[in-house]
Design brief:
Length: 185
């Protein structure tokens, strides 16, 4: 059964999500990859204001392709998440509650997620066109010079994701591996 959530992603909503949950996200989310994350953290280091408010927000690690005529965005498949691991804890500290990507996260990110009550979702790699169909509007809101890596404000409807790491640190990748190994004994 899919769980449906609508942004903003509050701490109360985060606590209800468990590793393995299938989730459909609707509302406003942001895109950012490593180049944008680096700039955001540099602003924080200088004590400056960010171009977007990440509090109770979700960042989707994606560099979408250009939109086809009549479409808000092109293909929008997830980027490998570890590329943001050196930056993610800083954003989690200021209220980021959700991240969408693919692949493993570092121990530091998982510990920061537990401390700051956040969740990591996996999007389906290889299904970029499907992911793009859930995006109803896309607008560049910062760092236009980064091209596909610019920060975009997306309005999404029923964006399909899976909770991989919940706010308690339960990790679907580890749980699935243990379950499999136990089943073959």
């Amino acid at each position: 059964m899919d769980r449906r959530i609508t942004t903003p992603l509050t701490e109360e909503k985060v606590k209800e999500l468990k590793a393995g949950d299938s989730v459909l996200i609707s509302g406003i989310i942001y895109t950012a990859r490593d180049a944008a994350h680096k700039r955001l953290v540099e602003l924080l280091d200088k004590g400056e204001k960010l171009p977007v408010n990440v509090e109770n927000s979700i960042i989707y690690y994606v560099g979408p392709t250009p939109a086809k005529p009549g479409q808000p965005i092109g293909s929008a498949g997830p980027t490998t998440s570890y590329r943001m691991d050196s930056y993610a804890p800083r954003l989690l500290e200021i209220g980021l509650k959700g991240m969408i990507g693919k692949g493993l996260r570092s121990k530091e990110v998982v510990e920061s997620m537990k401390k700051n009550k956040a969740v990591y979702f996996a999007a389906i790699g290889g299904a970029a066109a499907l992911m793009g169909k859930s995006i109803k509007s896309a607008e560049i809101v910062a760092y236009e010079d980064l091209g596909s890596e610019a920060i975009r404000r997306l309005e999404v409807e029923d964006l399909p994701v899976v909770v991989v790491i919940d706010s308690e640190g339960n990790n679907l990748y580890e749980m699935g591996q243990k379950e499999y190994l136990n089943s073959v004994k």
